[in-house]
Amino acid sequence: MPLDTTPWVSLAADPAIALGPLDGRYRADVAPLVDHLSEAALNRARLAVEVEWIIHLTEQGAIPGAPVLTDAEKAYLRDVVATFGPAEIAELAAIEAETRHDVKAVEYFLKRRMDHAPEVLGSDTALPAASELAHIFCTSEDINNLSYALTVRSAVHDVWLPAARVLVDAVADLARAQAAMPMLARTHGQPATPVTLGKELAVVVHRLRRQLARIEGDETLGKINGATGTYGAHSVSVPGTDWEDVARGFVTGLGLTWNPLTTQIESHDWQSELYDDIARFNRILHNVATDVWTYISLGYFVQNLSAQGSTGSSTMPHKVNPIRFENGEANLEISSALLGNLSSTLVTSRLQRDLTDSSTQRTIGIALGHSLLAIANVTRGLAGLGVDPAAMARDLDANWEVLGEAVQSAMRAAGIAGVTGMADPYERLKELTRGRRVDGAGMREFIAGLGLPDDVEARLLALTPADYTGYAERLVAHLD
């Protein structure tokens, strides 16, 4: 008999039961993003843009007859943003239920506050009479593009980047600590020229840091130029004002880069660039997670049970599963897929405007949330790792054939220097090592029979797989 999954109690509970894992199971890890990329945070940013637009217009004297606001009136307007909390969120939702338009609801909400200003500032305040300054000359996208620019930038710089830096610094610390730890390389999954654990970790630190630098330097663009990007209403209504100059000053005053050429919408190219860079960071980190998972399976890393959690397998009590890295893998894949979709779709808009970006941009928080969750898990996973030098040493000692590269290269160099009997070095080493294991005694016997110069022979006879790491240890210093 199939299981009946029809709910016998409604799941529309109070408090609400989350549909998705970011607002449910993993809420604690992604909660800081709520203050930046939730619907409430977007509406708060919209309010902030509307308020600052009013203040900017009055300070610039852009519209003849508009009042010069007092410091108290500016503070009152900015306090509308600062005090935007649960009650205000509910009030705004009620207004939107009537307007059926989110940005128009924000405008009406602000006008209500301006109408009520005399209750706080006294009857002589100019704010009620100035309420038509709210949203003047603005299409919804003038407010939205700036609001998204501010919230995405703050989410990335205040939440995502600090978490990513902590992770990369943790890998860098581990790389420095293990700079000299010899480890068998496995190119194509096969035993290969040894490296050090620290050098391999340093490689990914270098890669991740390059992406962080790109993300830190990505521009955030904005515009405020009307219904089709022409300042049409501005120039007809108030022809004596240089509206490009007013717009440039407003956008740059918000700390953004002014985009002078747009349709109705800001083109979102900066978002595409940013999301591509974060997705690239994700994919490199995904590579880190899968490699660490493999090193755990090889026994090179051991896991601290208290750091990983007390239960490995639900049925096999001996197991300590690498769940942090597996969780990281999954969430990085989800994040990268969403970021890739954002990047590819946001750069297109039919003719002067379509609304596909309105729905698409509402997933930005989800895309960054899965990345932030992965970063948290990989960071915890790294904190629970220990290194097993004995396991790495056993692997090295079982694969003396990896010295074949060093021996044939020394033969080539000797032959170039005029030493006889050094012909076909690659082929001779291939015959010795291809598809077979060679122990230390066998490799030394081969070296001793080559007729190499004494100093070269002595150097090769003293070489072990654990010693054959080249500049690996010193390369880690590039991190500093």
UniProtKB/TrEMBL annotation:
This is Adenylosuccinate lyase. It comes from Salana multivorans. Residues 24-328 form the Fumarate lyase N-terminal domain. GO terms for biological process: IMP biosynthetic process. Keywords: Lyase, Purine biosynthesis. InterPro entries: Fumarase/histidase_N (IPR024083), Fumarate_lyase_CS (IPR020557), Fumarate_lyase_fam (IPR000362), Fumarate_lyase_N (IPR022761), L-Aspartase-like (IPR008948), PurB_bact (IPR047136), PurB_C (IPR013539). Pfam families: ASL_C (PF08328), Lyase_1 (PF00206). Catalyzes two reactions in de novo purine nucleotide biosynthesis. Catalyzes the breakdown of 5-aminoimidazole- (N-succinylocarboxamide) ribotide (SAICAR or 2-[5-amino-1-(5-phospho-beta-D-ribosyl)imidazole-4-carboxamido]succinate) to 5-aminoimidazole-4-carboxamide ribotide (AICAR or 5-amino-1-(5-phospho-beta-D-ribosyl)imidazole-4-carboxamide) and fumarate, and of adenylosuccinate (ADS or N(6)-(1,2-dicarboxyethyl)-AMP) to adenosine monophosphate (AMP) and fumarate. PROSITE patterns: FUMARATE_LYASES (PS00163).
